Amino acid sequence: MSRRWLTSAAYLVVILFFGLSVLGVVGRASAPPGAVRASEAASTPPYVYALYRLFPRPRVTGFYENDASTPGGTGSYASFVAHARSLNVLSPLWYAIGPTGEVARDRSQPLVIRKAKAAGVALMPLVTNLGSNMLTSPGPRAAAVRSLVRIASHPGYRGVIIDFELLPPSARPGLTALVDEVYYRLHATGRRLGVAVFPKVGVPGTLPLAYDYRNLGRHADEVVLMAYDAHYDGGPPGPVAPFPWVKANLLYALRFIPRSRVYLGLGFYGYDWSDPTGGSAVTLSMPEAYARARANGVPVLWDAASGEGHYRYAGHVVWFETPHSLAEKASMARRYAVGGVAIWRLGFEAPGTWDTVMRALATGRPPTLPRGAAETAAGGGVVAGGAGA
């Protein structure tokens, strides 16, 4: 009896310490968004990071594009095969729902379905939208529900992830109702539902208004917070996913969505703006961003305020995620004990990115800046990971 009591007491102490550590981090999170990373690392006792290893790491969802759908690119297949062991869910961009609620696009690939099954990776295809009529009109919405349930019922699928974007505020009730009905119908057959949502903090305009965080969080197993594109194609140059902005949006989402259902989006990419004042930009994978810097003989600089890589060449401005910047966000996901991370997308990563991100997810420890970066980061200019990282 005494041994059993001691064992129970030991577990209680571990849980108590972990809970206090998480609460401590959450308490500090109410500070201004700029007070991040270095201060958190310095004020967190080493034993806290050891305790994280006693609990499951956040799950990993990887978004996938077919090779043929990325002209001039490599697609996601090779990356999936190489990193399948790190994935819990593969979400290929295969389906779209049209204005009438019927399936307007099906790019599913039997080879990928077989590979996912062989690797033990759950398959939850990403379903996008063509317009918003299927949400604002009852008939098309009912058809969309049937289409989503039919897609998810494929014997090789674990469920689906709904990625309906660029919606007007008037679509909010319809999106909530659709997710609600699909969720219950899928759960009746043992399947899962995910939904991707726009961030709401520091996002201008009405685009985020269609997402009812509280109700979507009740009726989705995974709520993917697309915490990227703070700066985007068509706008002024700047960091794609600045750390303070990502953190502020994560904390906002956690006010409404159960922690275990939040999946923090990580963007393995960047943008090249041809005009330093803004406008049209080209999406770059991480290897493309490093290669463009090398080709133009310029160093990749580390911006301490945003925690991202950037450089300029021939009138262009480039901002992009580096392995280091992604690891900072992954470690934050671990420290806030969210359900997982969702990576856009497989095949965009630079060498070493997966190892760096998975280590951060396992430990919750913010990575150390590359040697030399900490010395001049305040000045905004050091090589972070190097142009060949």
Q: How would you describe this structure in keywords?
A:
single chain, 389 residues, alpha/beta, eight-stranded parallel beta barrel, five-stranded antiparallel β-sheet
Give structural notes.
It is a single chain. The chain is 38% helix and 19% strand. The protein contains 14 helices and 15 strands. It has an 8-stranded parallel beta barrel with strand order 1-2-5-6-7-8-9-15, surrounded by 4 helices. Helix 7 (138-152) packs parallel to helix 8 and helix 12 (323-335) runs parallel beside helix 13 (353-363).
How would you spell out the order of helices and strands?
Answer: HHHEHEEHEEHHEHEHEHEEEHEEEHEHH
Q: Which structural class is indicated by helix and strand composition? A: alpha/beta
Overall spatial form: globular
What is the β-strand count? 15
Number of separate helices? 14
Instruction: Give the helix proportion (percent range).
Output: 25-40%
Q: How do the strands of the widest beta sheet line up side by side?
A: 1-2-5-6-7-8-9-15
Average the pLDDT over all residues and give the rounded result. Answer: 86
Q: Compute the separation of the termini in Å.
A: 56 Å
